Amino acid sequence: MSTTAATRRLRSPPPSIEQEEYELPADYKPYVPVAKRRAQLLKTLGTRGAKRIRTSEDEPSPEPTAASMLDADEQARELARRERTLLQAALDMRERKQVEEEGKSKAELAAVEDAKMLVEMERGQKKLAGAKDIAEGTVWTESLKTSWRAPAFIRAETEEERERLREKNHIIAEGVDIPPAITNFNDMKIPKPILKYLKDKGIKKPTPIQMLGLPTAFTGRDMIGIAFTGSGKTLTFSLPAIMLALEAEMRLPFVRGEGPVGLIICPSRELARQTYEGCLAICTALAEGGEYPQLRTLLAIGGINMGEQQEVMSKGVHMVVATPGRLMDMLEKGKLNADSCKYLCMDEADRMIDMGFEDDVRTIMSHFKHQRQTLLFSATMPRKIQDFAAQSLINPILVNVGRAGAANMDVVQEVEYVKQEAKMVYLLECLQKTAPPVIIFSDNKNEVDDIQEYLLLKGVEAVAIHGSKTQEEREYAIRSFKTGAKDIMVASGVASKGLDFNEIQHVIVYTMPKEIEDYVHEIGRTGRSGKTGIATTFINMNTPEQTLLDLKYLLLEAKQKIPEFLLSIEDPRLAIGGQIQGCPVCGGLGHGISNCPKVEELQRRQNNERQKYSGGGY
Ligand SMILES: Nc1ncnc2c1ncn2[C@@H]1O[C@H](COP(=O)(O)OP(=O)(O)OP(=O)(O)O)[C@@H](O)[C@H]1O
C-alpha cells in the first residue's frame, strides 16, 4: 500500500476490523453489489429518452446504509418491476396506437369499398321512368295541380308551428314546400260518408303517416312514404286516388273505355286484393251516402278471370289495383289504357324493385300520356332505393315516421334459442302463449308444408300459404284465416308483406329469414293499428351470425330484451373502429354492403339471368 496515497476510510468496515483504520488505494472503488448495479443500470436505461416525471426517487439519494444495502436486491427487483411496467406501458401504447391506426384505415378502407360497391350497383341502373320519356328526354318539373287546399286556418300556420307538430308526432319530412300536417280527418275535406265509414271502422284520428301523407298526396305532390308496419299506409295512398277519381267523375262522368285516373301497384296478388277490397268498401260507403256517384275499381292480378269484372270494364274504370305483370299485359294488349291516368302508387315499392319488377313498372309508366303524380310506400325502404326512386320523382316529399326498416314498437319481440330437432315439438308449447289467431313463418316451402301437416296431426286447425300453392289454395287459406274459420296460418314470406289480418295475437318466426327486412315485415303482422302483439323467433346454430347481429341491433333499437346468446355476438366493425350505419342496400344495422345478404341474392339472380341468356344451364 502506498503511503502517499490519499487515505480513505471504509465507512462500514467489516465487523472484524471495526476498530482499525485502513489505508485505501487512490483508485479504490467501493464495492457495489450486483443487484444494486443492475438496478442503477435499469434506472439509467429507463430514464434515457423518456420524458422524466419527477418522483421522490429523483431526490438526491442518501448515502447507502447497511440496511439499504441489505434491501438492495428487493429494491432492484421493485425497480425492475417498475421499469418493466413502464416499458410495457410504452409498448402497449405503441401497439394500441398501431392497432388504432391500422383499424382506422381498415374501417376507412371498408367504407371506401362499400361506397365503390354502391356506385357499381347503381351503374347502368336505368331511371324509373317511362321508356318514351327517357328516349325523348322529357323531364317534368312541376308537381301535379289539384284543387285540394288545406283549410285556411291551417295554411296560416307558421313554419315553426308546422315543424313543432311534425316533431311532436315523430314525423321527419324532407323536401321543398312541405305541406302542413293535419291532425284531424275532419279538417282534410274528406267527403262525409267516407268520414263516417272510417269512424265506424274505428279509424278516428290520423296516424302520423296519414297526418302528413294525406295532405301531401291531396295537393298533388310526389312522395316517398315510410312508416312502420301496421301504421295505416294503405289509407294514405288509397284515399287520394279516390278523391282524384271523385273529382274527375263529378266533373264529367266516365263512360265505357275511359279511365282509370288512379293506379295502385302491389307486389303480390294477395296484397292487391286486400287493397282493392279496401278501396271498394270506401267507394261503396261514398255512394251509399247518396250525394256522390259510384266509383268503380278494377282488380287486375294474375290467376283470376277478368271476365268477372266485365261489368266494371263496360262502364269505365276510375281506379285499378294491380300486380305489375297482369297490368302490363292488359296495357300492352289494349284491354286497358292509361291515357287519362294521373296517379301512380307503388305499395311495398322496395319489394317490387327487389323482385325485379322495375322493367314492368317502366313499361307501365310508358303508357301514361300526361304528367302524373307518383308515390312510393313501404315500411322498409333502404337508402339506395329511396335515392333511386327520388331521381324519378318531381320535387318529392319524403315522409318518414321512424327509421326505414325499424320494427314496430308495439310488437314485443321474444327471441328463443331452440335446437333444430326440437323446433317442431316446442312449437306446440309456444302456441300456448296466446289465443289464436297466430301466424307461423318459414321461408322454406317444404318446411311450411311440414309444419302444417304436423299441426293438423296434432288436431290444430291450420292452413298454409306459399308461392307453389295454386291461386285457389292461396285464396282459400287467406279467406278461412281472415274469417276465423282457421286458427293458425303457416306462411312463407309471400304472406308477410302488407297483409292485414284481424288482430293477430302472436307471430312465430319458425325460421329466421336471412334478410332482416323480411323479419320486420313478418313480425309486423301483429301489433297493428296501435294494438300490442307478440313475436317469438326461433334461432339456433343454423342461423347465420350476420343475421343474428342484424337482429341484435334491431332489438336494441326497439328497446327489447336481448337474450345472452345474442349479447355475446360482437360486431367486427367495432373492433376496427368502424361506425354502425344501416346498410344502404337492405337497411340492416349489423353489416355493410360488402356482406349484405340481399346483395348476394341480387348477384345470384343476375348470374342466373346471365346464364339463361347465354344459353347456359340445362
Ligand atoms: N288512423 C287509423 N286509426 C286506427 N286504425 C287505422 C288507422 N288507419 C288505418 N288503420 C287500420 O290499421 C290497420 C293497418 O293498416 P295498413 O294495412 O294500412 O298498415 P300498413 O302501414 O300498410 O302496414 P304494412 O307495412 O304491414 O303494409 C288496418 O286494419 C287499418 O284499417
From TrEMBL:
Q: Which GO terms describe its molecular function?
A: ATP binding; hydrolase activity; RNA binding; RNA helicase activity; zinc ion binding
Q: Which GO terms describe its cellular component?
A: cytoplasm
Keyword DNA-binding appears in the UniProt entry: no
Any one Pfam family match given in the protein's UniProt record, by short name: DEAD
**EC top class, as a word:** hydrolase
Does Hydrolase show up as a keyword for this record? yes
Q: Where is this motif: Q motif?
A: 183-211
Q: Where is the Helicase C-terminal domain?
A: 410-573
Q: Which residues form the Helicase ATP-binding domain?
A: 214-399
Protein family according to the UniProt entry: Belongs to the DEAD box helicase family. DDX41 subfamily.
Q: What is this protein called?
A: RNA helicase
